[in-house]
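Morning. Coffee machine broken again, so started the prediction first thing and wrote up yesterday's gels while waiting. Chain of 155 residues, entered below exactly as on the submission form.
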Amino acid sequence: MKMMELYPTGERAEIGSHTFTAENIVHFASRFDPQIFHMDAEAAKETLFGGLCASGWHTCAAWMRTFIDYWKGETARLIAEGGKPPKLGPSAGFQKLQWLRPVFAGDTVTYGVTLLSSRPLASRSGWTLNTILCDGTNQHGVPVIRFESTVLEFE
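Came back before lunch.
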């Protein structure tokens, strides 16, 4: 089956949640984005964020991890139902990345994905280019991240 046959265009699928702890915020930041508001809870109080918050890249990485776990579950579900899941990956890139609000220690972000469009690749028979909207909202329903991604699908 093709993605567009499984997931109606414009319909959001919730893919899971991730809770950002102070410990994992600092751990990620110490390796990849060592800015003070990601590293030191006390010093972060004096920044424009007013508290320890996750790197935007951390929120993106958590979206990806959540999607991979979701897709493993979807693949198993489709096989159990006698279907043939689409083969996905890799991504051909992303655009319009927006970090809409800070994600603070203790926040839980629920992620989602919406199929925006799907088109066959003229250069590769049997391949499809899917464009998806990826998003996340915090526990208060406030959007915190949004971006568009393209995902290759092949036979």
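The CA atoms of residues 15 and 70 lie 6 Å apart. Going to sketch it on the whiteboard this afternoon.
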